[in-house]
What we know:
The protein is an alpha/beta fold. 42% of the residues lie in helices and 17% in strands. The protein contains 8 helices and 5 strands. The protein has helices at residues 12-15, 22-32, 34-47, 71-78, 116-122, 135-148, 165-178, 185-194; strands spanning 3-8, 52-57, 102-106, 127-133, 152-161. The chain has a 5-stranded parallel beta sheet with strand order 3-2-1-4-5, sandwiched between helices. Helix 6 (135-148) links the parallel strand 4 (127-133) and strand 5. Helix 3 runs parallel beside helix 8 (185-194) and helix 6 runs parallel beside helix 7. The N and C termini lie close together (10 Å).
Amino acid sequence: MTAAVLALHWQVNVIEPDGFFGPMLAAPVAESGVVARAAAFHDAALTVGIPVLFTRFTVPEGEGELVRNTGFMRAVADAQEAFRPDADGARIIDTMAHQPTAVYDNQRLSGLAGPATGWLADHGVDTLFLTGVATNLTVEQTARHGTDLGLVVHVVSDCVAAADPAVHAASLANLDLATAGCIDAQDVLDAFAAG
């Protein structure tokens, strides 16, 4: 197994109250305690030599590969100045700013619909552990995408969160069937330690 952690959308626009999705996600993310758990998991993975790749949803000048084919994507397109790669809302949250092995930007919901996929292939990664927000959006889309690409994908169940706890739980139940299974952070770290 050659593993990596893919850390999805840990950016101001998604996590912080003043970010674009703050009114929807900031309070439930804070209440869940997921930021501290995911940051600790990322640090532990890095300590044992597992790379941690971060993805950011950004919209460059000219819109890059943004496709306005859903209400979600149309809303982002309408507010694209807030998603420019150099905008404050695009930056990785302070708690995790020191962690990325690499940061990859894209304009799709899946973190694998962009340059991160090339990095994984170049480094022979066959197993992904996903963290991020929101469980039912980027995490689920990326997990299914990775599985379809032939990767072994595990969602780190205590390192993801969504706006609604019931939706979060339903998404994890779906992902437990649609991927190699959900797993909590300690079990992943125990497996890393066992070699």
